[in-house]
Amino acid sequence: MSLEQLLEKTYGFDSFRPGQKEVITAVMDGRNVLALLPTGMGKSMCYQLPGHMLPGSVLIVSPLLSLMLDQVSQLKKMGEKSVVALNSFLKPEEKEAVLRKAGDYKFIFVSPEMLAQPFVISRLKRIRISLLVADEAHCISQWGFDFRPDYLRISEVMAELGSPQVLALTATATKKVQQDILHYLSLEEPNIYVHPMDRRNIAYDVKRFDTREGKLEWLKDFTAHYAGRGIVYAGTRKKAEELSAVLRQNGVRAVFYHGGMEQLDRVFIQQQFQNGETDWVCSTSAFGMGVHVPDIRHVIHFQIPTSIEEFVQEVGRAGRDGQPSLSTLLVSPGDEALMNALLADELPTRFEAEAVLNSGGDRALVSDGVVRETSFRVLKYWLSRMPLDKTMQRMENLLQEKMNRAARMSGFPASDGCLRSYIAETFDQEITDRPSNCCVNCGLDYSMYPVRKEGEQHSGSGGWQERLGRILP
Amino acid sequence: MSFNELILSIMDRLDGQRTVSAPFHVLKGKKSGQTIQDIGYFGLHPFFGVISDLQKGTYDEAVTQLCEAGLIEQADGPIKLTEKGRNRKKVPVRLDGWTFQGRERLFFARLSLAVQTFSHVRAGNPVFDPAQTRTDIQFWVKDYLRKMNFSAPESYAAFRSQLTESLMLADCPDRSKTILVDRLSGIGIGGLTWRQISAEYGISEMDAKIEATAALHAWLAVLREEGFPMLIPFLEGVLRHSPLTDSTKRTLRLYKEGLSVDEIAAVRKLKRSTIEDHFVELAMNDPAFDFTSFMSREAYERVNDISKSSGSKKLRDIKEQLPELSYFQIRLALSAGGEQP
Fold first, then answer.
1. Contact of A77 with A48, CB cutoff 8 Å
2. Which of A133, B25, B74, B104 is 20 to 30 A from B111 in CA distance terms?
3. Whose CA is closest to B289, among B13, B27, B41?
4. Quick check: A470 and B193 CB within 8 A?
5. Mean pLDDT of chain A
6. How many angstroms separate the Cα of A450 from the Cα of each of A200, A445, A466, B96, B126?
7. What is the pTM of this model?
8. Contacts 24+ apart (CB under 8 A), A434-440
9. Between chains, do A471 and B186 touch, taking CB under 8 Å as contact?
């Protein structure tokens, strides 16, 4: 059976998306693979389909709990029954039960923290793991924008798990980060698949303003004129709430989303966006994962992100249906200062480092609010390997690296060249064939984007029986 | 009933007896001896644990507001209602916190996933992102749906009509029911966030949450009393199973009919001491147990004071100091005080 036939038979798709077949073929050839596939290109298929051909189980290391839960539910939605997630949500007895019959599962998702537990390893050693997948593999690199020290454990346990074949997946990785991934996962003779980062159907716009109020006025006009759906990345939780309120006052269907909301509220916002009950979501960077809306037409950055990687990831949520979509970055004086302040603030402080060192890495520091979650993670890792001063030196270097990335981001709106090329160059790629609708500097055709139809206001509440009647007709 | 009204209702019952922080512990559902005892003493069952995630800051803010509105005298120290506070227009309390102790949330989580599933299955689109991410809830609902033969049109119709009919019977304002249904989702219809509900009805998020809890309690009371076969399974683990022995339950039933201890003993052909044991068991398991038909509140307090100050729970020691009380009364006082005699 050909790969296409298997795809059709298993999932009912008649063709692969760009890149998938290349990666799957390399995996089935028994190679270690590093694959760079842009967000939304169906990365998970690269291990799902091999999972049906390989004996034994596929072990997927996933760095974020929310991402893991989403992947599991997406796999289940596609009809995969043999899926399980090992994470800190499980009660000890549930974990034990899962591990006892781990070999019965085709796809086992695991958090890097779990891989550090000898008990988990001893159980996983007993089963046959045909493929180890490092998802979001850029997290393994301290130069990546999302460094997760726990990820380095993958290499430590690989030998114990019988050195299985490895597939490293990521959407964004510069050359430097790619080298780190290969090095830390000790991938010998790897097959590296780099899909062009460029999303041809997304055009890039930049709007400059003298004041922040100017941004707000523009946003009001834009959302009043153009149809959604769209995401407005606001920078902070407070700003996200504020922007959504302003848009609503202006008669536009807008809601906000951020990590400070309770779980069910977040699910509800995703539902509303998916159903088309709202046109705009104003949010922090927390919004995106778990959102499976193919026809997002606009991604607007009200505040400049701190790196091109982050920017590309967020913009990449637009236009998964292949239709023309637009990324708009709004800038005003003072943005850069705010961004730099944000970066410096993110960095672990000497005070935090001393607290971690003196406590011997007690997690209570996080729950007590003495040390921030991300600081704790990074500090605990480095302090267990080097003295305080060296660690702080590393933090300095890290800040410098972050500043460099931020500078690269700042250069984006300042550039008068092709913005698409600017992004590609960041990832050591080049654009050979520019689409006609490219960027604000090459020329933009706004008529590509549908304008808003009036009368899309939501109907007022008709009481509980009316609503229940709509839910259960 | 708003958050501030809720606090004031508790304060009203504790007026002059407890400090301003006591209602906080009641609302949070603190399981300490003092709070539990106060529940029985002051009849605070409706309020117990209805806002288990209440933050102290939120509570203090509301107390300050009550103070500024001239409903209570002071924001710390003992509770003192003002004249205005005592004569306020009273709102009926429709909560039943003691019975459910937060488990109404389990009920609603299961129910909302079942509703979402029925909604999608009926539309012929059984693939969707579940609103409930907890796997234990998902397993429970999956199991329930299978047992109920959920894909049959009759099951859908029964579920739908029983849902509507039972909610209609719930004794609470329509708006509270609407808030609850706003928290349900189905195909093409997303749930509403607390902030959206708050904006829709012009009330605070906290007030909206309290209304939803009240609606759940009222609804659960209906489901407990009336037979709605499609919905009864949802009560599993939500209604606490009585820890009482069957014999004690029989005694309780006769007691509620108005029979005295001796009469119960005669009817049941049991010794009086056995019936007394039943009452001690009742007092131990139900902090709301009303002992005042067996002894005065003063007697009860004296027993517990002596027990506490002497550190002794020996019945004879207490009896020596309180010869006018029977052993039964002393045992009852100690059990109701949360101590094992």
1. no
2. B25
3. B41
4. no
5. 89
6. 18, 12, 33, 52, 32
7. 0.81
8. A435/A200, A435/A201, A435/A203, A437/A203, A437/A324, A438/A203, A438/A204, A439/A203, A439/A204, A439/A205, A440/A204, A440/A205, A440/A206
9. yes
Chain A: residue whose CA lies nearest to B181:
A464
At residue B216, the 3 state secondary structure works out as helix
Closest alpha carbon within chain B to A264 = B131
- Give the neighbor-by-neighbor strand order of the sheet with A83-86: A83-86, A107-110, A57-61, A129-134, A165-170, A33-36, A191-194
**Pair of tokens at residue B253:** 């039933």
Query: What is the residue-wise DSSP string for B290-325?
Result: --TTTS-HHHHHHHHHHHHHH----HHHHHHH-TTS
Q: Enumerate the H helices of A263-334 as residue ranges.
A: 263-275, 308-315
Distance of residue A381 Cα from the nearest chain B Cα, in angstroms: 31
Q: Which residue of B has its CA nearest to A68?
A: B133
Contact between A472 and B160 using a beta-carbon 8 Å cutoff: yes
From chain B, the residues in CB contact with A263 under 8 A are 133
Question: In this complex, how many residue pairs, one in chain A and one in chain B, have their CB atoms less than 8 Å apart?
Answer: 95
Q: Do A275 and B189 touch (CB under 8 A)?
A: yes
Contacts of B135 in chain A (CB under 8 A): 89
Q: Find tokens 């933050």 and name the residue.
A: B55
Interatomic CA distance for residues A281 and A269, integer angstroms: 8
Displacement of CA A100 from its chain's centroid (Å)? 32
Give every CB contact of residue A237 below 8 A, 6+ residues apart in sequence. A258, A259, A260, A284
B142 pLDDT band (50/70/90 cuts)?
very high
- Read off the pLDDT of residues B260-281 as tens digits, 9 standing for 90 and up: 899 999 989 899 988 988 887 7
Nearest beta carbon to residue A465 from set B156, B164, B186:
B164
Query: How close, in Å, is residue B118 to chain A by CA atoms?
Result: 7
ipTM of the complex: 0.79
pLDDT digits (tens, 9 = 90+) for A70-82: 888 888 888 888 9
**Pairing between strand A83-86 and A57-61?**
unpaired
Residue A170: which H helix or E strand, with range?
strand A165-170
Number of H helices, E strands in chain A: 20, 13
User: Which of A53-67, A263-277, A338-352 has maximum average pLDDT?
Assistant: A263-277
Three-point CA angle A180, A184, A185, nearest 5°: 115
Identify the three-state secondary structure at position A168. strand
B44-69 residue pLDDT tens? 889 989 998 899 999 999 999 999 99
pLDDT at A40: 67
Cross-chain Cβ contact A275/B188 below 8 Å: yes
User: Cβ A267–B191 below 8 Å, yes or no?
Assistant: yes
